[in-house]
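Consider a protein example.
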Amino acid sequence: MGWRKWNRWIHRELGFLFFGMTIIYGISGIALNHSVARHWNPGIITNATSMQYPGTLQKSEVDRNTIEIILDLTGEKENYKQYYFPDQDHLMIYLKGGHIIVELQTGEMQLTKIRNRPVFSELNYLHYNKPKKLWTWFSDLYAFGLILIAISGLLLIKGKKGITGRGGILTIIGILIPLVLLIFYLWL
């Protein structure tokens, strides 16, 4: 078997083997890019609801009974974890799956419920390499596989459409774009 047949075989087989990983990193990568730009967390969904405490509160008056009243008003009694004062004007109540912020002077309460975003949460878990262990090894194998796929892809086609023609021009452009952007963002 000649080197071109081996090259096609490597490119094809690795492409099939790493299809799933490419989808995982592609989707989660797009989501992570847009989370930074739009203050959007692809891993979680938050829902905030405003409510009103009947009256105002003083930090010194807040006790377990006050917390119970707030939990009854918000319907979150079974989810209570703990409370604290982040500053003189606010009370923070931690819940399983969210929190309540109370503005003491006005009695305005904001209940924020937090839950995992389906699919994106799991993809981000893998993208950030949170499992560690075997996932790290498989991710490294995938990265090496991508290098082989890229190199073998350059050598798939001969002639004007290959690396010595149009393919070479596109390859140079594909190398220059990240370099130009890197120079622009780091030094200009």
